[in-house]
């Protein structure tokens, strides 16, 4: 408060100085304007002294009076040039008297001046003067200390008057806001540090205080934002207190930049959130204890394992009494025996895995827990406990023990079985004529089985035990390749050892052998040992040679058959084409006979003529179908991407007469794209739908649908016709194969053969699903992508 008073005195003195300079300036002006009139000078100088008195500083009044006297004397000297001495003396005497009286009266009004005069008049003792000087020195020292404290404050300290202008501004304010004291003093606080959004509220608060003397925010701790000189905002803590002074009430603001504190608080909050998230993400229960054994914190897993909805249900409770009060057998677990407490009693970690914790519902579960001491600033403050429900572990341990016992029994049984199997394997290898060999690659010693020796016609007692015993019996033409196969395997250029070669028998003949083996390598990749089998494949090699001979013969036969098929196709085309001309003549003349002589000859003649006409028509139909069959290959068009919806439309248009004739109901699904010969696919669908209409029992109902995958589409034609017995499902696709007479159902028996040939050319399949009397469904697979078919196959 002393510091604030000192500041107010400084401000008052500054204003007094200003008034003094105004008075002095006025005195000089009066002197210059009317220096000849002593009366006006006297009045003016009296006014000068009165103005100086407004500064309320005695030395200002005395200085003004002295200046007035000096100027009066100067004016008198100048007046002697124009007036007499007596006149000037009288006038100056009156002026000086007026100035002296005014000066005395002005000094009498100043506080403390009269007392000082009285003290001087009465006489002040040396002791009193010394005491007064001491008090003044103490006051000056106190003011100096206050000023130092004001400037050294870690908070920005700002004083303002009731107009909002800055009257004082300490060093920390300069550092905090970027304005120097000289720049800030006298300026409105709103122009310096108050953000735009707070300025109206600041002005209203000052006005409200001037009118009511009340300030709701005074002596309150506030958090808001301030403005730096560079225009940036930052968070501050603010406290404003009123300062009652002689010169008028002012306000002192203590401002602290809390940017760093806010960041630290945010960082701590974020760290706490991360720690909490980490604790809550673990499957283990974790809780803290103070030195009394009370819970200080717990994670969500702890609450869940103990059967509580939230950790808040047991925080601040004694955890031993809550969850650790009894042992596995139900007996009381004394708190002074609790192993968990050792962490903060003896400052040592504890791990226990043979105790139980008790849930909220009164049930217990086996746990393994760890308790470690918890310190703060080197002082022991409690412990942290981590625990696991080991019910499943115990169950697994029991199950593992039982499994181990079973495995031991199984191993014993399997050992016996393995011994039996080994004996059987040896018998099997002997029976299968499979020889065994075991090669120690480090010293070239080899063990050959009895069967191995017998394969080459040698008795079991033959003394073979070196690699050279095998090497020396190789066929000369096979030595290099046999060594190469071994080297590639040992050098890891081949994943397995498998080699065929010829070996010389005891009688001098050679037999083909197959050798296979596996090696064991050291850490450097060098072979240590290799074991394997030795199989006589002489008969297999002879069979392979015979099979190759037969395959070569078969390929020659296939080539001949292909040539024959080509010639047959050409013959069928030429024959059917050449038959068309004479057949047309026969058909024409027979129809002329029927039209010209029908009814004019006897009945037998009419019958013969009718038979001729029908036979010719059947022959023409058969030749046409035969031509279609041959043209599947001979007049095939390139494959292209085509819509099966368009193919269906073309087929229905060609079958329109049959559809109308039999009142058939033909429907389809939305059909996909396919890849093929458009004309042949139309012929395929026309044949299948036409057959479905032809072979009907009642009103024909035909439906066309598809299923598709990435590479092919399956086209299905389903009808409600007479059906086909299982025995004929393959035979109906043969050329000229008919299941009914021409009188029952007309046709040549070539239609389905044409369908199969078209489907085969497209790389697909065709088959039927049917039973006699229940209708039929013909399925055809067609390619979707161009790469899925070898065109023209």
UniProtKB/TrEMBL annotation:
<keyword id="KW-0997">Cell inner membrane</keyword>
<feature type="transmembrane region" description="Helical">
    <location>
        <begin position="16"/>
        <end position="33"/>
    </location>
</feature>
<keyword id="KW-0597">Phosphoprotein</keyword>
<dbReference type="InterPro" id="IPR000700">
    <property type="entry name" value="PAS-assoc_C"/>
</dbReference>
<feature type="transmembrane region" description="Helical">
    <location>
        <begin position="61"/>
        <end position="80"/>
    </location>
</feature>
<keyword id="KW-0808">Transferase</keyword>
<dbReference type="InterPro" id="IPR013655">
    <property type="entry name" value="PAS_fold_3"/>
</dbReference>
<keyword id="KW-0677">Repeat</keyword>
<keyword id="KW-1003">Cell membrane</keyword>
<dbReference type="GO" id="GO:0005886">
    <property type="term" value="C:plasma membrane"/>
</dbReference>
<dbReference type="InterPro" id="IPR005467">
    <property type="entry name" value="His_kinase_dom"/>
</dbReference>
<dbReference type="InterPro" id="IPR036097">
    <property type="entry name" value="HisK_dim/P_sf"/>
</dbReference>
<feature type="domain" description="PAC">
    <location>
        <begin position="220"/>
        <end position="270"/>
    </location>
</feature>
<keyword id="KW-0472">Membrane</keyword>
<dbReference type="InterPro" id="IPR004358">
    <property type="entry name" value="Sig_transdc_His_kin-like_C"/>
</dbReference>
<dbReference type="InterPro" id="IPR000014">
    <property type="entry name" value="PAS"/>
</dbReference>
<feature type="domain" description="PAS">
    <location>
        <begin position="271"/>
        <end position="312"/>
    </location>
</feature>
<keyword id="KW-0418">Kinase</keyword>
<feature type="domain" description="PAC">
    <location>
        <begin position="497"/>
        <end position="549"/>
    </location>
</feature>
<protein>
    <recommendedName>
        <fullName>histidine kinase</fullName>
        <ecNumber>2.7.13.3</ecNumber>
    </recommendedName>
</protein>
<dbReference type="InterPro" id="IPR013767">
    <property type="entry name" value="PAS_fold"/>
</dbReference>
<feature type="domain" description="PAS">
    <location>
        <begin position="142"/>
        <end position="196"/>
    </location>
</feature>
<feature type="transmembrane region" description="Helical">
    <location>
        <begin position="86"/>
        <end position="107"/>
    </location>
</feature>
<keyword id="KW-0175">Coiled coil</keyword>
<dbReference type="InterPro" id="IPR052162">
    <property type="entry name" value="Sensor_kinase/Photoreceptor"/>
</dbReference>
<dbReference type="InterPro" id="IPR003594">
    <property type="entry name" value="HATPase_dom"/>
</dbReference>
<dbReference type="InterPro" id="IPR036890">
    <property type="entry name" value="HATPase_C_sf"/>
</dbReference>
<dbReference type="InterPro" id="IPR003661">
    <property type="entry name" value="HisK_dim/P_dom"/>
</dbReference>
<feature type="domain" description="Histidine kinase">
    <location>
        <begin position="574"/>
        <end position="786"/>
    </location>
</feature>
<dbReference type="InterPro" id="IPR001610">
    <property type="entry name" value="PAC"/>
</dbReference>
<dbReference type="Pfam" id="PF02518">
    <property type="entry name" value="HATPase_c"/>
</dbReference>
<dbReference type="GO" id="GO:0000155">
    <property type="term" value="F:phosphorelay sensor kinase activity"/>
</dbReference>
<keyword id="KW-0812">Transmembrane</keyword>
<dbReference type="GO" id="GO:0006355">
    <property type="term" value="P:regulation of DNA-templated transcription"/>
</dbReference>
<dbReference type="GO" id="GO:0000166">
    <property type="term" value="F:nucleotide binding"/>
</dbReference>
<dbReference type="Pfam" id="PF00512">
    <property type="entry name" value="HisKA"/>
</dbReference>
<dbReference type="Pfam" id="PF08447">
    <property type="entry name" value="PAS_3"/>
</dbReference>
<feature type="coiled-coil region">
    <location>
        <begin position="540"/>
        <end position="567"/>
    </location>
</feature>
<keyword id="KW-0547">Nucleotide-binding</keyword>
<keyword id="KW-1133">Transmembrane helix</keyword>
<dbReference type="Pfam" id="PF00989">
    <property type="entry name" value="PAS"/>
</dbReference>
<dbReference type="InterPro" id="IPR035965">
    <property type="entry name" value="PAS-like_dom_sf"/>
</dbReference>
